[in-house]
Design brief:
Length: about 675
């Protein structure tokens, strides 16, 4: 009987940036799932790759005096090396510059044109090159890109359009009928309420202003623009519309597209609409994960706060980094990356919990039994029943969590077993049992339970930390095979009774936190030693700033995470009462309010129009930053800032006092 199939994808990465630890997060998560499914007997197709076209690449290649193809080739090699370092087991790496992909895109474009889903018209708008996104005039903030704040360019050109608007109702129906289609749930609501219900506009799908793209076969001068090219990778990689479409027949529709939250919209609106137009089944699920953030902001090269994964892997091993990423960040939510959190996790979960359990177990077997071999005569104790029941329960829980892609919960489920086994050592006190020869069977029973527990744990961590299991097996007398299969963990007592233990290397040496933090600051400073490093996009001034900050950090490693009370006191916060509020003309996002702060009335512009109507906002008491330098937003003076809480979806809620208090009161 043929195996069930499982098709999982990551987004295809832009090769314009050196990938950072944030990018690794999507790929590591997909890899963990792919490995898990393989262990469960699935025929897995795990796809990743690179999104290589566009004006940005064309320009950067030009700046470097090389062809776009040479430019991307260099970076793609680097990316493949990175995935190797992180033990990523993709089954296929697609490049949008692959001939097969380009052919598929051309055929898709032609099919959609022939059937009337693509038509020719004229595009007029503003384009942000770094974000590769078009905006309408009223979406801009201060005439600049609403996402990155950089200047936009005016463009007007003949373009092809995809009739996205025609699919609005069908999309809403599909999403409502298939609650698992968009996960987590919050993203589903966001798509329906923020994008689908307000109405879809047709999508511009070709450009004439640059050349580096898939040419529209029947209209030279046009290249296919962004999303049809990028999204089609998920089917072109399988041979869709090619002579050999076996893989397509076998694996499509995808089980899950794993994507970062900012591209959920393209994957749950444009992509399904294209598939509907092509009369193809839709993927089972699009899972939008949160970002890895530093100091609350998205890690990005242009901000200068990226963390280089290869440096971390070199220092701590890929298993430790993979563990940290999947454990620290609740899947679907943003997670903060700090070197301190990383070292704390390695020391507590890996060195203390897992490392100690392994080394203590093995050391005791070697110490108490000749040649490190457990005897046949073994006796159970009163804690064993509890251990067996707990293990059974935790396996089930972990499986459920992995299926839902809740990797942090699954790892916690496994660590419950590890911590329970460590506690079992304290409960059974093998060193006391060892004093009396009559207790040897009991002692052997205890050490067997620990070894068997380690076997179960080692199998369970394999999808997340693929290198560590072999190291544990070597120490408890196992080799990869039947006894290390996922199925084997359902039966307690599978490890041979008379197993032989052998001390191995220290898998996770404890790290001296203070020294390491200082070393890491230097290692991660933007002066990069990686020879294949591509030309940095970071502006020189920004680099200098980061370097200065980095040097200062090394000096004051400990203090830097905190601010002093004097720092806090620099921010003047007061209670204000909104007395007048109206929309900023031609802006979807901005409200302008007159806010009474004691005797004074301030005018403040806030980006909250999506969350409050002016009527709702009037009368509210809010917290205002009153000593912020005034700025003009859309030509309107703003003399302060209203504080808001922001959730993972970007939703804003204004912050106010919990009790009755007059406006002008200080907040401190
Ligand atoms: N090329 C598009 C995707 C096209 S898919 C048909 C793209 N590329 S990207 O390189 O910018 O991003 C690739 C993935 O990395 C996205 O899922 C994105 O969310 C993810 N991440 C980039 N920075 C990240 C963090 N700081 N944290 C977590 N994920 C991050 O988008």
């Amino acid at each position: 009987m043929s195996k069930p199939t499982y098709y999982i994808t990551t987004p295809i990465y832009y090769p314009s940036n050196k990938l950072h630890i944030g990018h690794s997060y999507t790929t590591v998560a997909a890899d963990a799932m792919a490995r898990y499914k393989r262990l469960r007997g699935y025929d897995v197709m795990f796809l990743t790759g690179t999104d290589e076209h566009g004006q940005k690449i064309e320009r950067r290649a030009q700046e470097e005096g090389i062809t776009p193809q040479v430019f991307v080739d260099n970076i793609v090699d680097w990316i493949k090396d990175l995935w190797k370092t992180m033990d990523i087991t993709y089954d296929k790496f697609i490049r949008t510059t692959d001939a097969e992909h380009k052919q598929a895109v051309q055929k898709i474009f032609k099919t959609l044109y022939d059937q009337g889903d693509i038509y020719k018209s004229e595009y007029e708008g503003k384009y942000c090159t770094p974000c590769e996104t078009f905006y309408t005039e009223h979406q801009l903030i201060d005439g600049k890109c609403p996402d990155c704040g950089r200047p936009v360019e005016s463009v007007k050109e003949e373009s092809y359009f995809f009739k996205l608007s025609a699919y609005q109702d069908k999309l809403i129906k599909h999403i409502e009928d298939n609650p698992a289609f968009i996960q987590p749930q919050t993203r589903q609501n966001e798509m329906i309420n923020n994008f689908l219900k307000p109405g879809l506009e047709d999508l511009c799908v070709s450009r004439t202003s640059f050349k580096w793209g898939v040419p529209v076969e029947f209209d030279p001068g046009h290249v296919v623009y962004v999303w049809i090219d990028a999204l089609s990778n998920y089917i072109s990689a399988l041979g869709y519309l090619s002579e050999d479409d076996e893989a397509f027949k076998k694996y499509w529709p995808a089980d899950v597209h794993l994507v970062g939250k900012e591209i959920v919209r393209f994957h749950t609106i444009i992509w399904p609409a294209l598939l509907m137009a092509l009369d193809l089944p839709l993927p089972e699920q699009v899972f939008g994960h949160g970002w890895l953030v530093i100091d609350g902001g998205k890690m990005s090269k242009s901000v200068g706060n990226v963390v280089d994964p290869s440096i971390l892997v070199e220092r701590y091993s890929s298993d430790a980094i993979r563990y940290f990423l999947l454990r620290e960040i609740a899947f679907g939510q943003d997670g903060n990356f700090t070197n301190e959190a990383l070292i704390t996790r390695i020391n507590s979960d890996l060195a203390n919990d897992l490392g100690n359990l392994t080394s203590r177990t093995v050391a005791m077997i070697e110490k108490y039994f000749e040649g490190g071999t457990l005897p046949e005569m073994q006796q159970e104790n009163e804690f064993d029943t509890d251990i067996k029941a707990l293990v059974k329960n935790q396996i089930q829980k972990a499986e459920e969590n992995i299926e839902k892609l809740f990797f942090n919960n699954a790892l916690e489920d496994i660590w419950v077993i590890i911590r329970r086994l460590n506690k079992y050592i304290d409960e059974t006190m093998p060193w006391v049992l060892a004093k009396d020869e009559a207790n040897k069977p009991k002692l052997a029973g205890v050490l067997y339970t620990l070894s068997e527990g380690l076997r179960v744990v080692s199998v369970m961590i394999e999808p997340f930390m693929p290198r560590t299991p072999e190291k544990i097996w070597g120490q408890i007398g196992l080799q990869r095979g039947e006894l290390t299969s996922w199925d084997s963990i359902y039966t307690w007592g599978t490890l041979p009774k008379t197993t032989t233990a052998k001390k191995g290397e220290n898998m996770f040496p404890r790290i001296d936190k203070e020294k390491e933090l200082a070393a890491l600051e230097l290692a991660n400073s933007p002066v990069d030693t990686n020879q294949k490093e591509i030309k940095s996009e970071t502006k020189p001034e920004a680099q200098v700033k980061v370097q200065e900050k980095s040097a200062q950090k090394t000096e004051e490693v400990k203090q830097l995470e905190y601010i002093t009370i004097d720092d806090f006191a620099k921010v003047e916060l007061k209670i204000g009462e909104v007395i007048v509020c109206e929309r900023v003309p031609k802006s979807d996002k901005l409200l302008v309010s007159q806010i009474k702060i004691g005797e004074e009335v301030r005018q403040i512009v806030s980006g909250i129009a999506t969350y409050y109507t002016p009527e709702e906002f009037v009368g509210k008491k809010v917290v205002v930053v009153t000593n912020l330098k005034p700025v003009k937003l859309r030509g309107i003076l703003s003399e302060g800032m209203v504080l808001c809480a922001v959730d993972e979806t970007g939703k804003l809620v204004a912050v106010g006092p919990l009790g009755d208090i007059v406006s002008g009161s200080e907040v401190r």
